[in-house]
Amino acid sequence: MGSLSTHHIISLALAGFSCATVLQCQLPKEMGQWSSSLVTLGSRAALQLGPPGHSLLPSLLNKRALNLHERFWQRGIVSDLDEAIELYRATLLLLPLDHPNRPSSLCDLAASLGDRFLQRSIMSDLDETIELNRAALLLLPPGHSDRFMSLNNLALSYQHRFRQRGIMSDLDEAIELNRAALLVLPRSHSDRSTSLNHLATNLQNRFREQGIMSDLDEAIELNRGALLLCPPGHSHRSSSLNHLATSLQKRFEQQGIMSDLDEANELHRTALALRLPSHSDRSMSLNNLSLILQDRIKRRSIMFNPDGAIKIHRIALLLHPPGHSHRSSSLNHLAISLQSRFEQQGIMSDIDEAIELHRAALLLRPPGHSDRSNSLNHLATSLQKRFEQQGIMSDIDEAIKLHRAALLLRPPGHSDRSSSLNNLAASLQTRFEQWGIMSNLDEAIELNRAALLLVPPGHSVRSMFLNNLALSYQHRFQQRGIMSDLDEAVELNREALLLHPPGHTHRYLFLNNLATSLQNRFEQQGIMSDLYEAIELNRGALLLLPPGHPERSSSMNNLAASLGTRFEQQGIMSDIDEAIELNQGALLLRPPSHPDRSSSLNYLALSLQAEIPATGHSV
């Protein structure tokens, strides 16, 4: 028998390819696997022996790859995806640079690699996805019908990589691509609402990292625009309601505007009503509504009852059984609600359960998982809370170890590195407060300094980081008596207060912090202007805490203490009279069951005792 020509070999390969493709659609599963092998062998032989650019082979390879890719979506068999990727690669090799199908071939290969990245978290797959989508976009000039899809795909790839590596340039690139995609779409296009939401989501992500309010304001307006394009009955209406509610809630957290929180609450309730018990996103709506409930109650200075939130999160967890992709998130939400109840009511079983839930969530996020660092931080925080109650050394040691592990997953340049530096510093400071190990405090200060450098002026968390560093310096001053540490604490507290102008929800906290550091400095140096300023700051803080506020009694004690100090210096009777009155008022707010009642009794006794020499009367 003579040798076969290349033409015959290709014909045989294509025949085998076509036959196997038909067989695999009709035969039992085990036969389908056999025909799949035949397809692979036939296509490889044709690729090796056939001339480049054969007219039928690229389309047959691509069709086979599309079938395997679709079967992966249906059955979740990753080997199907692996084979589809190889066939997509083979198709691309056969298409010259100017072939009209090359852009779609690049997009198909990019999509399959993106899907594999979501399955296995292999960063090289994601990097290649971006390069392929870039190459496809270059082949689709302005005006091309597929340019919008290509812009959107590339933006999504950058967004995924930002979540993995936290590199801000990736997020910036995604935002610019989202803007370009939006410009391509006419106002009447069916995908316009989705495109508006994509841009809004990335702007909100950038706000979270950089704290630029204009990003958040724009995200809210974009989400409003998207909702208008999803009228009642629209399949995406519940998602649009949820997006707008989330962005309004974020703005409330920054500016404390109650109307934003109230509107977010109504939007989440409406979204929940559209997501019946069988809806896949119902658990998400339950979680969102629970978080809104907590914020609304805390904002109105009413003691938050977390029982309702815990019940909602338990229901949400039932909707995410073992194996569900959202189970780890539901475990975390329930754990956080239990931790909130523990912080209010001190029920140890709540914090114990929260820790176990966080451990379960961490197991579902193994090394390489994009949310592993978050789970490490959540578990560390719960362990630290339990340590503060029970003083078990192993809890704080494990918390520090977990925070160190989270920090390693957020190298320099990662968007969440500053929060990991801050969290590790807090746990080291907690251990210092218990055991007095100065190396822990020194390291906490260095970590807080590094965290502050990563949040420039204007960043939403800068004030918190200023406060944390100031507190560390005050602790070190108390240990070593170095005045430069105390001076540094005063200046940091001043800067933090400037970031909370009149009308800000948390201004009272920063008034109190600056007052405390100034009073400490007065006690060291005796500069009366420091004491006078501390008194005025404490008065300002008390005015912001109306009757019924949980922090009012502490603020009354603080003002009483600074007035008592001035009385000791200058003997002004009105100061000690006011101090006694304030301490009496604070005591009334702390009934016998209050954990700080003994402190209030002590403060009142000291102020009454200070009055005796001045009046000559016994108590």
From TrEMBL:
Protein's UniProt name: TPR-like protein
InterPro entries tied to this protein: TPR-like_helical_dom_sf
PANTHER family, alphabetized: FUNGAL LIPASE-LIKE DOMAIN-CONTAINING PROTEIN, KINESIN LIGHT CHAIN
Keyword NADP: no
Species of provenance: Suillus fuscotomentosus
A Pfam family hit: TPR_10
Organism placement in taxonomy: Eukaryota, Fungi, Dikarya, Basidiomycota, Agaricomycotina
UniProt entry keywords in alphabetical sequence: Signal
Region forming the signal peptide: 1-20
Keyword Magnesium listed: no
